[in-house]
Design goal:
The protein is built from seven helices and four strands. The chain is globular. 34% of the residues are buried. With 171 residues, the chain is an alpha+beta fold. It has a single domain, classed as NADH Oxidase (3-Layer(aba) Sandwich). It starts with a helix and ends with a helix. The structure holds flavin mononucleotide (FMN). The site of flavin mononucleotide has 10 residues, from loops.
Length: 171
Amino acid sequence: MDFFKIVEDRRSMRKYANTPIEDEKLHKILETANKAPSAGNLQGYEIYIVRKLEQRKALVKAAMDQEFLAEAPVVLIFCANPARSVEKYGERGTSLYAIQDATIACAYSQLAAKAQGLDSVWVGAFDENAVSESLHLPPELRPIILLPVGYAGKEPRPRPRRDLRDLIHEA
Ligand SMILES: Cc1cc2nc3c(=O)[nH]c(=O)nc-3n(C[C@H](O)[C@H](O)[C@H](O)COP(=O)(O)O)c2cc1C
């Protein structure tokens, strides 16, 4: 699949089919995340896989009743792991790079999902403590993104973007 078509076709999916996703496809998503750049190549993040319905329901609660988190067969949790970045980068490592590392890995994952006919949506609106508690995450990790992944349950509409003339500036 053409890279630019994958980027063009990716849309936030908020309705999922009741179909499991293949292990190989999930593995490919995770391998792709692992290829993302990171500060100092320290990979200051961790990814948790959530499959159990009970846990996905807990995520719905932690994320302001975003019900599709329980519909998707898999939710990936991208967590910053500042301890991996702090030694080399200090405060900038903990407050910025670890979060950026997790963020880039998630962006790669969304595209890897799309390239395999799967959809996802970036969920950033959630109670961090509630997510950490319900999944028993190690206290040093900070959940940054919940990413439900699955087969589309509907055809999503493309969202508009800013005009390049508004977005781009000559310095
Ligand atoms: C940092 C961030 C936080 C987001 N949080 C949520 C969220 O909590 N729930 C949701 O449904 N979508 C969320 N989104 C998805 C955006 O709403 C979506 O990407 C945007 O409207 C553009 O639509 P598109 O992804 O279909 O191109 C988030 C996206 C980002 C990057």
